[in-house]
Amino acid sequence: VLGLSILTATTLLAKEVKVGVIMPLTGALAGYGEMTKKGIDLANEMKHTLKNGDTVKLVYVDNAGDKGQTANAVNRLSSQDKVTAIIGALTSSNSLVVAPIVKKQHIPTVAPVATNSLVTRANPYMSRACFIDPFQGKVAAKFALENLKAKTAVVIVDKGQAYSVGLAKAFMKNYTKNGGKVLKKVFITSGDKDFKAVISTIKQANPQLIYAPIYAPEMALIARQAKMLGVNKPILGGDGLSDETLRKVAKDASNGIMFSDHFNEKATPTKLSKEFVAKYHKKYNESVPSFGANGADSYFIIFNAMNRCKNPADKECVAKNIIKTRKLEGVTGYITIPESGNPKKSAVINKIENGKIVYKATVNP
Description:
The protein is α/β, with parallel strands linked by helices. Helix content is 43%, strand content 19%.
């Protein structure tokens, strides 16, 4: 009876600790949001009861990939939902909106895949689960020169996306420093549909490689239109090309496209990643996308930090413990987060072959 009453008392004392999640679940970037959400949901299923008996509850807000809605989402989660921590936002542009607000309101936040280096700058409340663009750009430049033997490139930049601008800059810096030549930089804008002029410019320049650090919706149309216009050059991009929109819309034209990424289930680096992959297959009947893996890691980073606090709802304690993450077993590997909020991680190179994402290589920091 005594044991039962202690158990009852513990259950009564146990509370719900809320983690807000800001994702594009509608709009042009919904594919990315859905992939990430699946990973976060499964991570929460796997680990939801903290050491002290409290349970972690996820509160989702759809920002539709919009900056204004992103700011509203942070304020809603903070004032209305009283969350202890936030996962999000997804893209770099929206995470740059989140950063100053969570700094002001002291809400520990982990961005799953926002790779722009400015996202975490001078902000003890903002961290990420992914590598940053200077590293991703360096990886791509190295792969282009050493593996693809491409000495000349044209770079496609989406001028409206901080992610694209930052990654293009990192690639060009490393590529030219190591002997590559950028023949031309061409600009596009998210939402564009007709890329014939851009493709004609690329055709004229005749590069050995097209480097395209852009998102999947635009890349899908560029790939299709390039094929129609007879431009058949190797295309290399960043993690923004991992969304299945590229393969669904471009179909055969997407075959051969390569990109740096956070994860491939063919290279499971930890015991947890093997377990996560098996559970993901069972739950969703599909392979684990890198955004899903990073979404899960964002959750595990927060969960681990909460477990190290006497009161898991203490925001300051959670924030401090996120940047004290050392060799945490994650889905994408072992995670260490220094004070900068930027984890030290490896990258993989993936390639689309016969409509499927195929693992090619792992590049270490």
